[in-house]
Design brief:
Blueprint lengths: L1 H22 L5 H26 L2 H22 L4 H6 L1
């Protein structure tokens, strides 16, 4: 459930803002990509530590799925370009 909410917030709030800054040549995509990468790695480390401590496979699986979604967004943020420049050739 949390992964769905995070993906919806990124899609409707954060990604349009980053695209708007990329279109004005002040690209904040790599910054947000780095933030999401840090969050993903931190949650993965926490998940692995909890798995080793409690052997809770369901929680580890959910964190891996959430990190898969975050890795997709990290790629999308690092690949942002100005749409006007890309379309003009």
């Amino acid at each position: 459930m949390t992964a769905i909410v995070v993906n919806i917030l990124i899609y409707f709030l954060l990604f349009p803002y980053a695209q708007k800054t990329a279109n004005s040549h002040m690209n904040e995509g790599p910054f947000w990509g780095t933030v999401l990468l840090g969050l993903g790695l931190t949650s993965l480390v926490i998940g692995i530590r909890r798995f080793v401590k409690n052997l809770d496979r369901v929680e580890l699986l959910l964190l891996i799925v959430a990190n898969g979604a975050l890795s997709y967004w990290v790629y999308r943020f690092f690949a942002l370009c100005c749409e006007v420049c890309v379309n003009s050739g």
